[in-house]
Amino acid sequence: MPQLFEQPVQTLRWYLWHGNAMTAATTLKVLQIDCDCLPTKTKNLRETVRRVKAQGWELASYLSNNFDTLVNYGHLYRNSLPISSSRTDGCVDEIGNARIGKRAT
């Protein structure tokens, strides 16, 4: 990924981690506009811009469809609350395997 896209991507990650979906969506729109304004002289840069735009539209679609269910992981982390359900999933799998008599490999 070109250095040009590193800062916007880091900014998007921060906003999404902290549950700021509206600000992330705005940042994503600005990134899309910046991609349109880039002089794409080389084939490599054109392909990179095309991928960034495609992934940006995919993320924008995800945000619009899941806006109400996005989690503020920063808040959970700062309050020492769990941010993953992996422990629960592991326990459910273990119980399910014990009930059907499946052995661990």
Brief digest:
The protein has 105 residues and is mainly alpha-helical.
What features would you describe in this structure?
The protein is mainly alpha-helical and 105 residues long. It folds into two domains: 3-70, no CATH class; 80-105, no CATH class. It contains five helices and no strands. The protein has helices at residues 3-17, 21-37, 43-66, 73-78, 86-99. The longest helix has 24 residues, at 43-66. The protein is elongated.
Summarize this structure as a short list of keywords or feature phrases.
2 domains, single chain, 5 helices, 0% strand, 105 residues, mainly alpha, 72% helix
Nearest-integer average pLDDT: 83
**Which class do the helix and strand fractions yield?**
mainly alpha
Global shape: elongated
Count of distinct structural domains: 2
- Can you write the helix and strand succession as a string? HHHHH
Strand content: under 5%
Largest sheet: none
Number of E strands: 0
Tell me the Rg in angstroms: 20 Å
Count of alpha and pi helical runs: 5
- Uncertain runs are none
Distance between the termini: 40 Å
Helix content: over 70%
